[in-house]
Design goal:
about 375 residues; five-stranded antiparallel sheet; five-stranded mixed sheet; elongated; binds adenosine-5'-diphosphate
Length: about 375
């Protein structure tokens, strides 16, 4: 790849004509070039112009100003750029870029850490616009880098705060639930029917709150990067069976059936069992919550080929409106038909399930039809 020296875009002002005057067109061109040059220099956003075949990158001065590089330290090449991306982010950026190159999308954005002249890293938001040749081949990317380090620091502080508060909430909530259970079981004396009813409501509310706090805690652990993945050889059939029997407790109350079809080929997979269990717990508890009492039927199946394991969770519940199917994996998103049925959802379960699935190197997708049902497919690499 050709290395090019750093340079800013020169404004080529047209020469005056023979009469010493600029024609109207030439004047417009000169004004446009001057405006372009001013924008290029004046903006606080870092601007780049990458020529893909040569690897040449033209930066504006903001990169030197913001990250402390002198002009001779800055090399206008793709290699220089890539070598300044944090090693832990490089693969992710490369992966995203490859997907963008293969798609027909014009724009792309991603976040990563970029090295400053003093060796520390800043978080940047990279937003690119691609210019392609007539046959669709990527030729050039024009884009901006925005320093979002401060925003990231605030987000982290907020996540740490939420994590701390949730953690502190969990213990008192659990105590309320335990005493509620003890009252219900008659261990703390006999209750009148009305008292028992009130206690049952209190316990149900505390269980919902504990679930909410757990979801928030898990999301903040994942977002803070403090969720560890510990892989080992796992029998996926056993993990599914365990999760199904836990979900069965609530399913029984609703008289919803859960059938499980194990598969011999799912007996050995190198993954994190706890993480897999958490993903399945979310899919199964949704399947139970979004099917109607007495009529609900849920089927969980495992299947695998040489490289991948797929676990499907099928239900005959309310389904998901087509237009909303893409959004249900977003944080806090809830489809409108679900909100009517189950008002206490958090919209965090699938968001978390998707992040955990990605951490395991897999994918999650849904096929669904309103009033007919939904099937969630979880695909994981076997090794
Ligand atoms: P929650 O269920 O707490 O609202 P989730 O993140 O688990 O949050 O799910 C997001 C949304 O996806 C739900 O609100 C619902 O609209 C939809 N959804 C998830 N699973 C199902 C399902 N099995 N059947 C119908 N809708 C579902």
């Amino acid at each position: 790849m050709k290395m090019a020296n750093h340079k800013t875009k020169p404004a080529q002002v047209p020469a005056p004509n023979a009469a010493g005057r600029l024609s109207h067109l030439e004047q417009e061109l000169a004004t446009a070039l001057e405006r372009h040059e001013l924008v290029w220099q004046a903006t606080n956003d870092i601007l780049y112009d990458l020529h893909i075949s040569s690897g040449e990158v033209i930066w504006n001065d903001a990169l030197c100003r913001q990250f402390g590089y002198s002009k001779h330290e800055l090399v206008g090449s793709l290699e220089w750029w890539v070598s300044h991306i944090h090693p832990d982010d490089a693969l992710n950026v490369e992966d995203g870029l490859n997907k963008w190159f293969e798609s027909n999308s014009k724009t792309w954005k991603t976040e990563y850490r970029f090295q400053r002249a003093n060796g520390t890293y800043s978080y940047v938001l990279d937003r690119g616009f691609m210019i392609r040749g007539a046959d669709g081949t990527p030729e050039r990317i024009i884009g901006t880098l925005l320093d979002i380090t401060e925003q990231k620091r605030l987000e982290r502080a907020k996540d740490e705060f939420i994590s701390l508060v949730s953690h502190q909430l969990r213990t008192p909530l659990t105590i309320i639930r335990i005493y509620g259970d003890m009252f219900a079981e008659g261990l703390l004396g006999k209750l009148t029917d009305t008292q028992a009813e009130h206690i049952a409501r209190m316990t149900a509310a505390s269980v919902k709150l504990i679930k909410l706090v757990d979801d928030i805690l898990n999301v903040s652990r994942v977002e803070l990067g403090s969720f560890d993945i510990n892989r080992s050889w796992v029998n996926a059939n056993e993990v599914v069976r365990r999760t199904v029997s836990e979900a069965q407790v609530v399913a029984d109350i609703k008289q919803v059936t859960i059938a499980f079809k194990p598969s011999r080929s799912a007996q050995r997979i190198f993954t994190d069992a706890e993480c897999l269990e958490q993903i399945l717990e979310n899919l199964l508890s949704n399947a139970v919550r979004y099917t109607s009492p007495k009529h609900g039927k849920i089927t969980v199946s495992c299947s695998a080929n040489d490289t991948e394991l797929t676990i499907s969770v099928r239900d005959n519940g309310i389904g998901i409106p087509r237009a909303e199917q893409k959004r249900i994996f977003e944080r806090f998103y809830r489809a409108h038909n679900a909100v009517n049925i189950e008002e206490h959802g958090t919209g965090l379960g699938l968001y978390l399930a998707q992040i955990l699935t990605r951490m395991l190197g897999g994918q999650i997708r849904v096929e669904s039809a309103p009033k007919i049902g939904s099937t969630f497919y979880l695909t994981l690499p076997k090794e």
